[in-house]
Amino acid sequence: MGQAVRDSIAIDKWVAPYKNKKSSKTERKSGYWHYHLPNGGHHQPWFLAPNGYKIIK
């Protein structure tokens, strides 16, 4: 059972690290849908990201 949880992908709107595209400043933002990958990283399609920010993987 632990293996299935570790190898799954989660989707939520909780806090994730983002990088401002203009200033390169990093921030933690919440309220935007994104994926939690099995390797501990994040993924977010460009159209779900906050304007001017990119999720840090």
Description of the structure:
The protein is mainly beta and 57 residues long. 9% of the residues lie in helices and 35% in strands.
In one word, what is the shape? globular
Mean pLDDT figure: 89
Number of helices: 1
N-to-C series of helices and strands: HEEEEEE
Strand order of the largest sheet: 1-4-5
Q: How is this structure best summarized?
A:
It contains 1 helix and 6 strands, in the order αββββββ. The chain is mostly beta strands. The radius of gyration is 12 Å and the shape is globular.
Task: Fill in the keyword field for this structure.
three-stranded antiparallel sheet; 1 helix; globular; mainly beta
Which secondary structure elements does this structure contain, and how are they paired or packed?
Blueprint: H1 2-6, E1 10-12, E2 16-20, E3 26-29, E4 34-36, E5 42-43, E6 53-55
Antiparallel strand pairs: 1-4, 2-3, 2-6, 4-5
